[in-house]
Amino acid sequence: METASSSMVHVGVSGMATTVTLEQCGHNQGYMRLDNCSFCPESRCCLEGGPDCIHSVIDMDTVRKRVDSAGLGVSVSVSKDAGRYLCDYTYYTSLFLGEGRSAFVHVPPLGKPYSAEQLARALRAVILEMLELMENNKGKKHCLHDQ
C-alpha cells in the first residue's frame, strides 16, 4: 500500500525583501536572536546532530524562471539563506520532517512594493509551478539530508 507524501509551503514576511523570494534550503545552526516569546535554543540549532543544511527537493531556480516568464509584474528571486530566525527555523524543521518536500517563500510587506493582489497572483503561480515540479519528480529520491 502506497502512502501519500505531503508537502508544505510556508510564507513569511520579510521587511528586507523587495522580491518574492524562494528559499532553496534551511539551516540547522547559527540561531542567536530571541523570538517574540524571548526564546532561543540553548544549542543555537534546530535539531542537535541534524545535518547543517537541508535543500528542498523543489528546484527553486526552475520555479523562478517559469514564474518570471509568466509576466506577472512581480520580481521573483532565489535565496539560500532564510535568515537564521523564525522563518529559517520553521523551514529547516519542515524540510527535516518532510524529507525535503517543503518550500518557504519570503514576501515583502504589503505595498512595499506589491499590492495584496499582486502578491496573491505571484504566490498562486509559484505554488502551481512547485506542484508541477513535484508531480514530475514522483518516484525520485525525496530526502536530501545527506547534502
TrEMBL record:
Catalytic activity: Release of an N-terminal pyroglutamyl group from a polypeptide, the second amino acid generally not being Pro
Keyword list, A-Z: Hydrolase, Protease, Thiol protease
GO BP, sorted A to Z: proteolysis
Organism: Carassius auratus
Pfam family, one: Peptidase_C15
Record-level Gene Ontology MF annotations: pyroglutamyl-peptidase activity
Class of enzymatic activity (EC top level): hydrolase
Matching InterPro entries: Peptidase_C15-like, Peptidase_C15-like_sf, PGPEP1_Cys_AS
Family designation: Belongs to the peptidase C15 family.
EC number(s) on file: 3.4.19.3
Identification of the protein by name: Pyroglutamyl-peptidase I
Domain of life: Eukaryota
Name of the gene this protein is made from: LOC113111912
Active site: C87
